[in-house]
Amino acid sequence: MEVILKRTYHENGTNGKLYHGKQLVCFTIELPWLQNRRNVSCIPEGSYEIRKRYTKTRGSHLILEKVPDRSGILLHPANNALKELKGCIAPVSKLDAPGIGSLSQKATEKLQNLLFEVLDRDEEVFLTIQKQIDMNVVDRVKAPTPKFFKVLRTIGLGLAAAGGAILASPIALPAGIVTVGGYLVAGGTVLGAVSQTAVDDKCEEDE
């Protein structure tokens, strides 16, 4: 089994999203990247085996194996990376700021329930850590989101309104401007309608 942590780096902390396949399991917070220095830096990107371990102080928990130049790197609850972490990874339910999250205990239990079940069957689990790569403009067009369509709908409504204002002008306007107004109304109306349909369809899929 593999879970993937996609990181976003900031000056005061590292935020992440932890996935199992395409399913978002939880968010994460870590220390900022400071060249893998002990106690002040998050660990390097890479693939690490996750093992289940038990101690009297922590009970059953998750630990990463063979982290370069580091030891004792755990997946454990924390809501403030700078104050509570020394290199470990903290699952959180919500990201509030760089290196700061909330409801960490809840997120940690959710992750443990997922991984303990696999580890208890003596199956291997690996954590792959990588940098989050944001989509460029072309990718966003290829994989538009509801927000993208909502923006298009707003543009369409604006164009239609502008065209309507031209056509409804009490002043006699040149034929060319009137024609442009007609095109704006038609184009804006179509763009708005198509975008609204896409938003509605996307919302139904999300439900």
Structural overview:
The protein is an alpha+beta fold. It has two domains: 130 residues, Beta Barrel (L,D-transpeptidase catalytic domain-like), CATH 2.40.440; 70 residues. It is 39% helix and 29% strand. It is built from five helices and ten strands; from the N terminus they run E-E-E-E-E-E-H-E-E-E-H-E-H-H-H. The strands form two sheets. It has an eight-stranded mixed beta sheet with strand order 6-5-4-10-1-2-3-7, covered by helices on one side. It has a two-stranded antiparallel ribbon with strand order 8-9. Strand 2 and strand 3 form a beta hairpin. The radius of gyration is 25 Å and the shape is elongated. The chain starts with a strand and ends with a helix. The C terminus is likely disordered.
